[in-house]
Design brief:
The chain is α/β, with parallel strands linked by helices and about 325 residues long. Helices cover about 45% and strands about 15% of the residues. It contains 13 helices and ten strands. The strands form three sheets. Strands 1-2-3-7 form a four-stranded parallel beta sheet, sandwiched between helices. α1 packs across α9, α4 runs parallel beside α5 and α6 crosses α11. The structure holds NADP nicotinamide-adenine-dinucleotide phosphate. The site of NADP nicotinamide-adenine-dinucleotide phosphate (NAP) has 22 residues, from α1, α4 and β4.
């Protein structure tokens, strides 16, 4: 999602000499392959957007993969950028790096002041290691590597997998499927499941009982939808195109010495997950009941970034949340 949004922004700004590799073409956990790529291609500017990313379920289940793959990607790309003479690098971090009980809104200086949120600790430790790699390479080797900490992102090319997605795309898809189920629109449900996967046995999409059982496993029932947690936690969301604008803005105008160890990027406003579910219901046209299952974890109670530093540099987000969700829903739906 972020990588393609940055590519789109760079193309729109007139850049043409863009180098990009998919995961299949270059596995960034493989040090030798990463070094060969940097030595052969010699990029001048690097946006480090790759990572193993996921929502609360994936983060708390695949802890070893989250810490190992994200640390390896960061260490390999940052070290190869140094050895191949990259002029500037922008490392994508995440607001998960902040302590669970840190005061809100989260200021950059709260990093490492107390315990992390346990449900995403593995990911957060890897992201903190990446920030520190950039900082210490700058201090020891005089590189120009910066880190940005975006809040929760959403937009085109987001992950809509019901098991591994973040909360906003998960809500869009679940509420859309719940609407289709309440309307008995099984053909559209089957098309959706075929397009986005989720382990439906091959050729079984016209078996209505199986479809209903499959959806109920995700809390989607004909008369109601059951969502994880209490709905009370507050989250901030930023449209991926706004993040890409901020990333290109910082890359073009600021050096690591202006940015400091890292800089927050957010929208400046948060909402409860319950409010989000209501907003998304309106946008997708779901009119059924929403129930909350408080036996599942809520994660951090609130996560709102203090964005005064990036604002003082002359940047602010310009996509209202409803507008961004409408565009994302349209992309998902088409
Ligand atoms: N999404 C958010 O809400 C959010 C919020 C804050 C920060 N961020 C940060 O923004 C960055 C991008 O996130 P995103 O949301 O754009 O995630 P995404 O859509 O999942 O993109 C991550 C990309 O990294 C690739 N990748 C994973 N492991 C790789 C490896 N070993 N070698 C090469 N490529 C690999 C993935 O390829 P495959 O899919 O083929 O594996 C995918 O194309 C991450 O650093 C993330 O921490 C995201």
């Amino acid at each position: 999602m972020v990588g393609s949004a940055i590519m789109k922004r760079l193309e729109a700004n007139g850049y043409t000499n863009l180098l990009c590799r998919s995961h299949a073409q270059l596995d960034l956990t493989r040090q030798r392959d990463v070094e060969d790529f940097f030595q052969e291609e010699r990029p001048d500017y690097v946006f480090l957007c790759a990572g193993k990313v996921g929502g609360i379920l994936a983060n708390s289940t695949y802890t070893a993969q989250f810490i190992y793959e994200n640390i390896m990607i960061a260490a390999n790309v940052i070290h190869a950028s140094y050895t191949s003479g990259v002029k500037k690098l922008l490392n994508l971090g995440s607001s998960c790096i902040y302590p669970r009980e840190a005061p809100q809104p989260l200021k950059e200086e709260y990093l490492l002041t107390s315990e992390l949120e346990p449900t995403n600790e593995a990911y957060a430790i890897a992201k903190i290691a990446a920030i520190k790699l950039c900082r210490y390479y700058n201090e020891q080797y005089g590189t120009n590597f910066s880190s940005v900490m975006p809040t929760n992102l959403y937009g085109q090319n987001d992950n809509f997998d019901l098991e591994t997605s973040h909360v906003l795309p998960a809500l869009i898809r679940k509420l859309h499927l719940a609407k289709l189920l309440s309307q008995k629109d099984y053909a559209s449900i089957a098309r959706d499941l075929e397009r986005f996967g989720n382990n439906l046995p091959a050729g079984s999409s016209d078996d209505l009982d199986l479809l209903a059982t499959h959806l109920s496993g995700f809390g989607i029932h004909p008369d109601r939808i059951v969502l994880w947690g209490t709905g009370a936690p507050k989250r901030e969301f930023l449209y991926a195109d706004d993040l890409s604008a901020a990333a290109v803005f910082l890359m073009e105008r600021y050096d690591a010495s202006d940015i400091g160890e890292f800089i927050n990027i957010g929208a400046g406003k948060d909402r409860t997950i319950r409010e989000m579910a209501e907003t998304i219901s309106r946008i997708v046209g779901y009119k059924g009941r929403i129930e909350w299952d408080g036996t599942h974890p809520d994660g951090t109670p609130q996560k709102l970034l203090d964005i005064s530093r990036i604002q003082s540099k002359g940047w602010r987000a310009d996509t209202p949340l409803e507008k961004g969700i409408e565009k994302t829903y349209k992309w998902y739906f088409q």
